[in-house]
Amino acid sequence: MSNPAAKYRLLVVETNSDERLSLQRLLSEAGYNVSTADCAETALGYLDGGIDIVLTNIGTDRSGMYLLRHWKLKQPDTVFLIVSGYGGATIVADAMRSGAYRYILKPINVDELLVTLQQVVSSREQEREATASKSDKANDSLDQALGDAGLVGTSQAMRKTLEIIRRAAHNSTAVLILDEIGETRHRIAKAIHDQSSRRSGPFVTVDCLSQRPDEMGAELFGQKIHSMGSGRQAGAFQRAEGGTLFIDEIVELDAAMLIMLLRKLEQNAVASNTRRTSAMPVRVIAGASCEFSDVIADNTFRKDLYYDLNIITVEVPPLSQRPEDVPIVVDYVIQSLSRRVDTRAVSMSESAMDRLQQYRWPGGMRELSSYIERILVFAIKPQVELEDLPPFLNPDTTRRKPEASSTSTSSDENSFDHTLSTMALADIEYRAVAATLRRLRNNRAQAARSLGISVRTLQRKVRK
Fold first, then answer.
1. What residue numbers bound the domain in which 434 lies?
2. H runs (alpha helix) in 149-254
C-alpha cells in the first residue's frame, strides 16, 4: 500500500541550517516531498509551486507571521504549522487567527510533529474523497439532465459536446448554445446553471422570439413603472443578479437592442473591475438555432457582441451526423417514455433499428421521440419489426409505383396546379422552405438567398 504522505509537498522554512537539514531528513524519511527555504522571502518563491503544508519558524522578526498572512491571501488551502521557542498566549492567538493549523513549541517533539502531519494528511484525504464523491454525484446529475434533453451517445462528436458542457458547468464564462430545438437549448442552459457555482442564484430566461421588438428593452433592462414615478420595473439582468441569464434566439434582437446589450456587458465588466467573462454579476448564456456566420454575413448581428458571447460554444451535433448514436438514443427514449407513459418497454429488431439509423431525422430529437412514443402506444409485440414503423420509414409502403408511359408534362403540371389549389398559402410556403433547406443540406444562408429572403425571415418561417 502506497504512503499517502508521498502525494503531499511540504516546505520547511528555518533560518538555522542544522535544524533545517535535520527536519528535511526526518520528513523525507517519513515519505513527504520536502523543499526548504532559509527565510520568508525565499519561501515566497514557492507560492505557486503546489505546496500543501508549510512548517515555518516564526522568527525573532516575526517574519513567519508575515509569510503566513501573505501566503494565505494567495493560497488559503495551504496548511501552516508555526514553530517558535516562545509560546505566549498573544502570539499563539495571533497565529491561529491568521490561519495557522497548529502552533508548535521548540524544541520540537518529533513524534508529536509526525502525528500532527498524519492528522493533516488524513483530513486532506477525507476531503479529497468527499470532493470526488460530490463531483461524481454532480456529474451524474448533469448527465441525467442532459439525457432528458436527448444528449446521449458515444460518438466522437457527442463526447466532445458533452465534455464542453461539463467544462461550461464548472466555469462562469459566457456560453453560446447552438441547436435547432429551443427546448434542448433551454435544458442545456439550465443544466449548466444547476451544476455551476451560481446554482443557488436565479435562472432567468428571455425568449427573444416571444417578445415584441418594442418590449425587449424593458424586458432585458427594466423600465420606469410610470412616467412621473420613481419606481422601476426590474429587467431580466436585475432579476438574474447572482445567477444566470439565458437569452434564447438572441439573433432576433434588432440593432438597437444589440448595442444596448453590448454596453450592458461592458458596464458589468467595469463594475466588477475584472475580466468581462469571469466575475460578472450575471452570467450570460445565449442560444440560437442558426450558425452565427450566417447572421454575421447578413450584417444582422454585431461581431463584437458575438466575440463577447462566444467564449464557450456548445453546438449539438444533429442525429444525421452521428447515426451510430441512434440505437443509444432510441433505447434512452424508450426507457424514459415507458416510465412516463402508460406503455411497456419494447425492443427494436435489427432491421427496424437499421432503418432508424438510415433516416436523417431533420426534426432532431423531437421528431425521433414523437415517433418512438407513437410506436410504443401502438406496439402489441415485445419487439418492433420493420413493418411496425411509420409509413415514411417503411420501404414497402413508401416505394413509388411506376408511372404510366402516357403521362405527359402537361398532365403533371395540371396535377401540380390542382394540388396547389387545394393547399393553404401557409402550407405552400412551409413546403417551399422545407424543400429548399433539404436541397441545400440545411444551409440557412444559401436557402435564404435561394428564396430571396433574409436569414432572419427564414428563421421566423421555420418556426411557424
1. 415-463
2. 156-169, 182-194, 216-221, 236-239
What lies within 8 Å, CB to CB, of 372 at 6+ separation is 330, 333, 334, 337
Residues 187 and 269 in one domain: yes
Do 447 and 440 touch, CB atoms closer than 8 A?
yes
With a pLDDT cut of 70, the percent of the chain lying above it is 80
Extract the C-alpha cell encoding 318. Answer: 444533429
DSSP letter for each residue of 327-367: HHHHHHHHHHHHHHSS----EE-HHHHHHHHHS--TTHHHH
* 307 and 161 belong to one structural domain: yes
User: Per mean pLDDT, which range of 72-76, 368-372, 390-394 is the poorest?
Assistant: 390-394
Check if the beta carbon of residue 31 is closer than 8 Å to that of residue 3: yes
Residue labelled with grid coordinates 517533539: 109
Distance of alpha carbon 391 from its chain centroid, rounded? 38
Comparing C-alpha atoms, which of 326, 315, 401, 405 is closest to residue 368?
A: 326
- How many angstroms separate the CA atoms of 220 and 270, rounded? 19
Number of domains, the chain = 4
Cα–Cα distance, 25 to 51 (Å, whole number): 18
pTM over 0.85: no
Q: What is the CATH number of the domain that holds 109?
A: 3.40.50.2300
Q: What are the respective helix, strand and coil percentages of the chain, to the nearest 5?
A: 55, 10, 30
User: Which amino acid is present at 143?
Assistant: D
| pLDDT tens figures, 43-85 | 999 998 889 999 999 877 788 899 999 998 888 889 999 998 8
Q: For the chain, count helices (H), then strands (E).
A: 20, 14
Is-cis flag, bond preceding 213, omega within 30?
no
Same domain, 196 and 295: yes
